[in-house]
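[step 3/7] fold_predict: job queued, chain A
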Amino acid sequence: MGPRAKTTSAATGTRRGRWPGLLALLAVAVLSAACSSIIKPIEPGNRYGTAAALAGEAFPDGADVALLATGRSFADALAAAPLSAARSGPILLTEPGAIPDETTEALDDLGVSEVILLGGPSAISEDVADELGESYEVRRQAGDDRFQTAAQLALLAHPDGADTVLLATGADFADALAAAPLAAAEGAPILLAGADRLPAATSEALSELGADRVLVLGGEAAIGAAVEAQLVADGYDVSRTAGTDRFDTAAQLAEAAFPDGAAVALLTTGRDFPDALAAAPLSAARGGPILLVDGNSVPPATSEALDDLGVDEVLLLGGTAVVGEPVAERLAEADYEVTRFPD
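[step 4/7] structure written:
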């Protein structure tokens, strides 16, 4: 996969020219009333409320199944997006030892009958499983570690195999979660690797899936050249998508997933995982990529991707503590329609 275009919009054939003018407005602290009027706030909440709100938006007619991940760690749910797509269910979050009210209400509102727990009892306790079991059919997907859990999720999502597999680091969240739309576009599962090793569970899953092609996500600091060399030696067609940082990698993944552009994009913080984790089903429902911002700023790679993709509407995921109000203001000044979902 070649480098992404910096000067051409996939949707219009020309750069839309929003961001050069926007940079001159960085000192502006408050929007005019006209710009504020296009920001549609949704009442703030926490990470559990955000996941519940995203689930309701993605599945307005309800869902039979929901995937439940801990809201305290990303490890077991990094590879959950393809299973969410395969089962047409949202990703909701829970405390390890107790189910938040927001999650309980979402399960009820969606009409869920089956709950798939992601990870072992240290991630989601047996007490939670037992409580859910009083109202839902409950199953747990858990391997001995994050690599084996990802392998199980991949095989469950793709029982008939997959030609292409996305390979992300298991040590961080950004690349795997931003890759969810590309996984959907490629019909590919997400597997995990270490920086310098290909875990046995991952290698076995690649074989069981019958994969021919592996797309490595992120630079060599995330997944080293030794892993890529092992994959090549094992006979896989290997390519890598890597930016200068997580924001640029997410931008490249977005443009690879939407070569013809996208009308909407989901923006979430690149510094924490919960909102991005729960975003994959809404990304699929709205047909838009997941891009990353940094606190109160929009990284250049993200702003360029918004231009190149021809985006008109931006969904901000999380409250002002994670995606600052200056981000919403600058996007509105750039003439995007902006909606914020609760934190």
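[step 5/7] annotate
The domain at 162-242 is CATH 3.40.50 (Rossmann fold).
The first strand starts at residue 39 and ends at 40.
exit 0
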